[in-house]
Specification:
Largest sheet: none
Low-confidence stretches: 1-14, 16-38
Number of domains: 3
Number of helices: 17
Radius of gyration: 25 Å
Strand content: under 5%
CATH architecture of the largest domain: Alpha Horseshoe
Number of strands: 0
CATH topology of the largest domain: Serine Threonine Protein Phosphatase 5, Tetratricopeptide repeat
Structural class: mainly alpha
């Protein structure tokens, strides 16, 4: 299918932690299939060819506007947005495109007003909530941003793990009663929807550790080990958690497992000297944990 994907959540996430200059042109180009379309101009040629047959097709026109945005041809994209709004002024896709262009033009406050209105007129339009959330956070309205992001995650079918991590980070940053646990629940919802991903599980482990939920963190490591197979890094992480939990004998075993994996790795045969410092450091940590194992009377 020639239409560009409408999945823009990853692009909207560029708002977070960066200025509008970085956000501007990259933001709403998501995602062009590089394998099918090696360049935006190639995509534009194909869209124009189809528009010759159906010149008023709104989906094709929106695809053309998105492609023009990736090419930094914003005025042409704005002309198309105006054409679409004249034809269907209440279509949420058209309103969303207009808000994007307002933002790319540097008027974030107006874009915020547009997306807020969009969430009222089209409350089931998920991407409106997502952009609204990011703009709210950029405007230092964290509580409202969290609520909007949660709404987006509730009604969308997103497979973008970064959106779950973002909302969890905002909850942790707020630090209210129950926010950390709510962040874990949110991450688990993402795992349930998307599947076991290293980033989601590690984000949840970090929160588990902040709450001293050692068993939960270790259970997540078991899941990651089963999904991605045993590794030195996961065993070192396990050992670190066990040390924090005061379970030193188990930590010693975890360090042993990590060292064994490193010593059996192909790189150990190719360049054993390269691994020696890391193995020595793990041996030191193992000895430290061993020294804390309670001695039998």
């Amino acid at each position: 299918m020639l239409y560009l994907s409408k999945q823009l959540s990853s692009a909207a996430s560029l708002l977070r932690g960066s200025g509008l200059a970085l956000f501007a042109i990259a933001a709403f180009s998501w995602p062009l299939d590089a394998r099918a379309h090696p360049s935006p101009s190639h995509t534009l040629d194909e869209i124009n060819a189809h528009l010759e047959d159906t010149p008023d097709d709104p989906a094709l026109l929106r695809d053309k506007a998105d492609t023009l945005i990736t090419m930094n041809r914003l005025s042409e994209a704005e002309d198309i947005a105006g054409q679409l709004l004249r034809a269907a002024p209440s279509d949420p896709e058209n309103l969303y495109l207009s808000a994007k262009l307002t933002l790319l033009g540097g008027n974030s406050s107006q874009a915020l007003a547009q997306t807020e209105a969009l969430t009222h007129t089209a409350p089931d339009f998920a991407q409106g909530w997502n952009l609204y959330a990011d703009l709210l956070y950029q405007a230092s309205k964290r509580d409202e941003a969290i609520a909007a992001k949660q709404k987006y995650l509730q009604i969308s079918a997103t497979q973008d793990a970064a959106e779950y991590v973002t909302c969890a980070d905002w909850l942790r940053e707020r630090g209210g009663p129950g926010d950390a646990q709510a962040a874990i629940v949110l991450l688990d919802q993402g795992i349930s929807r998307i599947g076991v991903l290293m980033g989601l599980e590690q984000a949840a482990i970090e929160i588990d550790l902040s709450l001293k939920q050692w068993d939960s963190a270790l259970h997540r490591l078991n899941i990651l080990t089963a999904r991605f197979r045993p590794s030195a890094d996961l065993n070192v992480q396990r050992a670190s958690i066990l040390v924090q939990a005061g379970r030193f004998q188990e930590a010693v075993s975890a360090y042993d497992a990590a060292i064994a994996i490193l010593e059996a790795s192909p790189s150990a045969n190719r360049n054993p000297e390269q691994l020696k410092p890391r193995i020595a450091a793990l041996q030191d940590k193992k000895q430290s944990a061993l020294s804390k194992v309670p001695q039998l009377p």
